[in-house]
Amino acid sequence: QTVVQGIILLPLRVVCIVFILLLAWLSASIATCYQPGRGVLPLNGWRRRMVQITLSSLTRMAYFVMGFQVKVKGKVATLPEAPIFVAAPHSSFFDAIICALTGMPSIVSRAENLATPVFGTILSALQPVAVSRQDPDSRKNTVAEITRRALSRGQWPQVI
Q1: Of 10, 68, 79, 117, whose CB count within 10 A is highest?
Q2: pLDDT category, 41, cuts 50, 70, 90?
Q3: Which region, left, alpha or beta, applies to residue 156 given φ > 0 means left and ψ of -120 to 50 means alpha?
């Protein structure tokens, strides 16, 4: 009986996850379409709310479809309380759960990830701090950008 359930549930879950991923791509595309100052200026107004609400909800839904149920104990720190989050060990796809639960903050990511089809568009909507591994000044530039965003008094989303 377990094998039969797996044969039925696995394709159903895959179809649902692909559908959720395409919805996330569509909402990220809409939020960043004709964005003034793309990548240099923070998302404001409806664009920022769309990314926070839609992508957060879709990410939670995707993890639920995969069989994960996450409960938060305590209160997530607000932007004025903590402009920077630290997630450790920061090494798997489970990091997206933290992003969804904290309102889709900006992340630090490899610059190459922005060129990935579908995922790159979603990642761009999060306004990441892009790290170039070919640039020898990358570490210094990344620290400077994180500091600039943390001191922006709420213009930029939290950084994880």
Answers
A1: 79
A2: confident
A3: beta
Helical H runs in 33-118? 45-50, 56-66, 95-101
C-alpha torsion 87→24→31→113, nearest 10: 50
Amino acid symbol at 128: P
Please report where in the chains the tokens 């990358």 appear, as a residue.
138
> Do 82 and 159 form a contact (C-beta atoms < 8 A)?
no
List Cβ neighbours of 82 (8 Å cut-off, separation of 6 or more): 158
In 74-139, DSSP assigns E strands to: 108-110, 129-131
Q: Tokens 């791509």, residue? A: 25
Q: Is the peptide bond before 89 cis (omega within 30 degrees of 0)?
A: yes
Residues 6+ apart with CB under 8 A from 146: 84, 108, 129, 159
Report angle CA 67, 85, 154 to the nearest 5 degrees: 115
Q: Which residue has the higher pLDDT, 40 or 100?
A: 100
| Residue 87 neighbours by CB under 8 Å, 6+ apart | 95, 98, 160
